[in-house]
Amino acid sequence: MKIIEVTENKKEYLDLLLLADEQENMVDCYLDNGRMYILDDNGVKSECVITGERNGVLEIKNIATVPEHQGKGYAKALIDFIIEKYSGQYAVLQVGTGDSPLTIPFYEKCGFVRSHIIPNFFTDNYDHPIYEGGVQLVDMVYLQRNF
């Protein structure tokens, strides 16, 4: 298993990116300025895009695993890699996600705690309703973990 930074042709991984953020123009808002990492384990299994924000915050903008390889620890391995690589450079690792029973427990298991919400983020910024685990996503829930 190896983690590789992708610096060119990031859109080559668009299908995987769209698993976590299903509207391409929203992906475009952070893809060029973000740092992208892929996890290769006999083929690409997972990806992550991060951006440096103000006040010592590093934000996970997108993290996704190929569906048939979910639950095998690939996304957690990417988060562990980010924590190790950027420790000392940032104070907080942050992620924004929908209030979903599929994603919130994953981040909590990775050591994140709820920080704040942006009301109506998904209904205001996406051109169609987004559902995850049978739940319509409305608010963006931010979770944070200290480095």
Automatic annotation (TrEMBL):
SUPFAM superfamilies: Acyl-CoA N-acyltransferases (Nat) (SSF55729). Residues 1-147 form the N-acetyltransferase domain. InterPro entries: Acyl_CoA_acyltransferase, GNAT_dom. Keywords: Transferase. The keyword Transferase applies. The keyword 4Fe-4S does not apply. It comes from the Bacteria. GO terms for molecular function: acyltransferase activity, transferring groups other than amino-acyl groups. PROSITE patterns: GNAT. Pfam families: Acetyltransf_7 (PF13508). Gene3D superfamilies: 3.40.630.30. This is N-acetyltransferase. It comes from Dorea formicigenerans. The lineage of its organism: Bacteria, Bacillati, Bacillota, Clostridia, Lachnospirales.
